[in-house]
Amino acid sequence: MIIYNGSPWRSRFLRSPKIGLELVARGDFAAVGDLGTVSLGAKTGSDQFFFLAKSQARAATTGRWRVRGFSGWEGEIPKADLLPALQSPKDLDTDRDGMRVRLASVPSRGDLFYLAVRSNRFDRVVREYVHYGEENGVHRGDLVKSNAAGGDWFRQTRARVTSRWALPYNSGYDYGAVDNATGAVLNGRFVGVDAVAGVDQDLLGAVLNSTFTMVARLLEGVATVPVNLDEAVGSCYL
Amino acid sequence: MTLAPAATVVCNPPYVALRRLGDDRKNEAANALRQDSKALVPNVLKGKPNYHLYFWFYHLYFWFHGAQFLDDEGRLVFITSGEWLDSDFGAQLQRWLLENTVIELVIESVAETWFTEARVGTVVLCARRCSSQAVRDANPVKFTTLRLPLANLYGCVADEDDADHIAHVDALRDELLTLAGAFSETNRFDHSTITQADLFALGQR
């Protein structure tokens, strides 16, 4: 069967300066896609439900995080049902001594989690949160159902993207490649990049943050459909 | 009513996401394709509606349906929003064009907006039906970015008559269709040329 994934005709052939085509034609040109594998982050169908923020208040029970979730819900969910997550490039902005600073790596102790309900345990607070989601129709979303692959709607079966390097999906964002050594689950505002065998991960990061690659992303890594990013789907062409 | 096969279908379809349409309009589009020759309908539209269609734009239906009216070497000339050229959902249309037509010319203007009411960039694509893979593979697909308004490129003069105007338009058309070399940049327009076989291979990565 012939597989056809598409390629960015407008970016490459209509809008890019022709020097790009000249460089691509060189024998010593290496595409970033040859150095790393690229995966689009999670399209949950309901980021508001599946991504939870750590609450200001500490959890009263050991082994749990107090978190805020869908539509203001707040509760203490077992740490074992939560994975570190990165939802938006803006989550990498922080204040330091009154200055806005952009982090170059995903914090090991972040404030955002992805709900990854264990397959062998259904905690009572998680059950309460799931019930709250059902009351609000989260389970009826097409993408939510699709991600569950016929199983429990709140246990998403799509492969989680926890790549070493996280690139904002939309090149309009003024961000480089972020080191995700902490293994945070990336949502669909990011693409994850991992080095292929034989390529050093740190070197790949340096390449991804090089001026040349940044420019190439602006030329070819384009947003796809003119809707909000939660709904957008597409590819980052590297 | 039965129409004789047409030499050209020129179309300016609506630029709207499929999910923004009501069920009646979506069913109308699906039914139109159901009555069409299956050979010119992509597989993704032959089965049940699926998740991918959620992201489609309505204008894709017009391509497949419009092709039904062409003779064996008839042309499609479409002006559409250009986002499909870089989108996942547009890959379906890319493949369909690559496998059923020779793509002659793709034009975008950075000098002017062709529809003041449209909020998206518009692109013109001209393709001719072709059943020979050898011909399709060898076809040079020309992409052209216009850097001057069409009126300037035509070289129109005041008070010219229709015949002169059409001659100017034809001259520009012929110039664009006969551009030589892999790419060029000028003050009037940029162009890139790639064989259809290479264009297909690029989308298979």
Average the pLDDT over all residues of chain A and give the rounded result: 85
The proportion of residues in beta strands of chain A is: 15-25%
Can you tell me the residue ranges of chain A where pLDDT is under 50 for at least 5 consecutive residues?
A: 222-238
In angstroms, what separates the terminal alpha carbons of chain A? 24 Å
For the largest beta sheet of chain A, what order do the strands appear in spatially?
4-3-2-8-5-11
CA-atom Rg of chain B in angstroms: 18 Å
> How are the strands ordered across the major sheet of chain B?
1-2-4-3-5-7-6
By DSSP (H or I, 4+ residues per run), the number of helices of chain B equals 7
Q: Globular, elongated, flat, extended or rod-shaped: what is the shape of chain A? A: globular
Please compute the radius of gyration of chain A using only Cα atoms.
Answer: 20 Å
**Hey, which two chains have the biggest interface?**
A-B, 32 and 37 residues
The structural class of chain A is alpha+beta
The largest sheet of chain B, given as strand count, sense and whether it forms a barrel, is: 7 strands, mixed
Supply the number of helical segments of chain A.
Answer: 8
> How much is the average pLDDT of chain B?
87
Distance between the termini of chain B: 44 Å
**Total strand count of chain A, please?**
12
Give the oligomer, counting copies of the same chain as homo and different chains as hetero: heterodimer
What is the CATH architecture term of chain B? 3-Layer(aba) Sandwich
